[in-house]
Specification:
By secondary structure, the protein is of the alpha+beta class. 38% of the residues lie in helices and 14% in strands. The strands form 3 sheets. Strands 6-3-7 form a 3-stranded antiparallel sheet, with helices on both faces. It has a two-stranded antiparallel sheet with strand order 1-2. Strands 4-5 form a two-stranded antiparallel ribbon. The two termini are 29 Å apart.
């Protein structure tokens, strides 16, 4: 299934359950939160996106609800979804067909593995290789905006030279 796209904070403290094919509250006390805190965080994230708030500003706003580390993770994750979705949609509207993935070491299209093999030069989604350096169709960027919470993924239009080298 993968991560939900464009969550605006609604999935904080929730996880995907394969058996029921739905999002459920996480049973792990470390990550669970009260519904009213999730709603407050959701409101803060939506406001941040609407106002173009920086990562640091959203982190500061969320620090009233969460520890500093968790506030940073939530801010990075939620803004990553918003910005990467917007970038991919804008690229598609401008006729860009392929994007270069920039990501942290070990990040996969869905998930993270610090021992992930290096990115392949093949164009398109490659689940067994590190996402950083891959060239994806813009539609894959829309589907895999982030690989995991706290992901630092970004997309850039692939240049003609990058596409030639991948061919």
């Amino acid at each position: 299934m993968g991560l939900c796209r464009g969550t605006s904070g609604a999935l904080i403290g929730r996880r995907w359950d394969e058996a029921s094919q739905s999002w459920i509250d996480t049973p792990d006390e470390k990550w669970s939160i009260e519904p009213k805190i999730r709603a407050a965080a959701n409101d803060l994230v939506q406001e941040a996106i609407k106002e173009g708030m920086s990562l640091g500003d959203l982190r500061d706003e969320l620090s009233g609800l969460f520890s500093d580390d968790r506030a940073l993770m939530i801010a990075r994750t939620e803004l990553g979804y918003a910005y990467n979705t917007g970038a991919a949609m804008n690229y598609a509207a401008q006729g860009v067909e392929y994007v270069m993935v920039r990501d942290g070491f070990g990040c996969l299209p869905e998930g993270h593995d610090d021992k992930a093999p290096a990115a392949d030069s093949e164009v398109g989604l490659q689940e067994e290789n590190q996402a950083d350096g891959q060239i994806w169709p813009v539609q894959d960027a829309l589907q895999y905006q982030l690989g995991h919470p706290n992901c630092v993924r970004a997309f850039l239009p692939a240049t003609d030279q990058e596409l030639e080298e991948a061919a």
